[in-house]
Amino acid sequence: MTESHASLAALRRIVGDSHLLTDPSLRAGYEVDWTRRFGGPALAVARPADVEELAGVVKVCAEAGVAIVPQGGNTGLVGGGVPRNGELVVSLARLRDVEPVDGLAGEALAGAGVTLAALQQHVRAAGWEFGVDLGARDSATIGGMVATNAGGLHLLRYGGMRAQVIGLEAVLADGSVVRRLSGLAKDNTGYDLAGLLTGSEGTLGIVTRARLRLVPPLPGRSVALVGLPNTAAAVSLVARLRRAPWLLAAELFFPDGLELVARHSGARPPLAGPHGAYLLVEAAAERDPTDEMAAALQEESSVVLASDPAGRRRLWELRERHTEAIGAQGIAHKLDIGVPVARLAEFVERVQETVSRTDPTARTILYGHIADGNLHVNVLGPAADDERVDDEVLELVIQMAGTVSAEHGVGVAKRRWFAADRGAADLAAMRAVKDALDPRGILNPGVLFEPS
């Protein structure tokens, strides 16, 4: 029996025959990411039911030198959660346990395979909200969101995932389990392993459960869509609005994206006349904040407001359906970048010029979280493996003191730009941590760092 066959037999004994997928047709959905740009063959797909089974799987792989790719909802966009060269995919989809909400502390304990939508439903039933929200809420999982330090729509109000994680449980590269789930608000005993593993993209350990901070519900909601002459005007307006206690979200998009969404979905743009930029603003408070938001926007000449659920949903769809509308056009190069807010307008102008100069046939669609300086650059046209546009855009980001990954992670897509973004000293320190916790390099090899 070969070593790989022996490993598969051992894995089958741990997770059961029906949860070790070796048939190519069953593996296929786990072997390519959402962008359709990244992926490769897997040795197999293991679907452990709990932390004990996962620890057993990792131990077998550690002893046999089998590389592992942890996978959550497979909604990643940088190739960080799919196999590349015959690794074992470990799907966390079965780790879906949620404990009753701790109403005294305002905390929830959720398994790595719980979707964001399921968590939201669970905590709302107990009178709470979760501070992070994403358009991919129906498929993105808590484990993946922790592993990538997901940001999302409400970061300006509540922060990203790292701000919500109060403790976690994870399996390390040797199969040992670290567990810090007490939820103590003050705990200064040693290194913050939860903070270290959050954002590590599965390269240091595999998150199995997380204790999460909750926030009080704000039932009063209102959404406004504002038509503005350009990005600079949108930046100035958000700078004024962010002083308001009711501001929950501020999203930026442009006429070409709106036109694409309208054509794809049949939605009717609610503002008449041409505008250079569109700003979607959501207000949230204990009572209806519509009057306060209307007063804050009274100087704007092109505004539509909605306070009823259906109206709010229609306005939000103009922003949230960008992703599917772009995907329907073909395989897009998706670059999630961040620049200083003060230079956002400059970046919008320069990135269009950069893409056109590099590939005159390419089409660029921009949208993003304006208050965070985070834009999603979507380029349609270049072949999936043609990275010239990616390189030119990321070079521009570095020149403008930005980051090549604002919220989606580095994965394999931006690995070549990791050192340019963080610097040699940062990279060496992170590599030392990786080597200490995963000396054989079996956890997500090729993500963040070149494989050992």
Write a brief caption for the model:
The chain has a 7-stranded antiparallel sheet, sandwiched between helices. Strands 5, 6, 7, 8 and 9 form a 5-stranded antiparallel sheet that branches. It is α+β, with helices and mostly antiparallel strands and 452 residues long.
Question: Could you walk me through the main structural features you see in this protein, from its secondary elements to its overall organization?
Answer:
Helix content is 34%, strand content 21%. The protein has helices at residues 3-15, 24-27, 51-64, 116-125, 142-147, 155-158, 161-164, 193-197, 231-241, 255-265, 290-296, 309-320, 322-327, 344-358, 388-399, 418-422, 424-437; strands spanning 20-21, 42-46, 68-71, 87-91, 107-111, 129-130, 165-171, 177-180, 206-215, 220-228, 247-253, 277-285, 303-306, 332-338, 363-369, 374-380. With 452 residues, it is α+β, with helices and mostly antiparallel strands. The relative contact order is 0.12. The longest helix is centred in the last third of the chain and has 15 residues, at 344-358. The two termini are 27 Å apart. The strands form 3 sheets. Strands 13-10-12-11-15-16-14 form a 7-stranded antiparallel sheet, with helices on both faces.
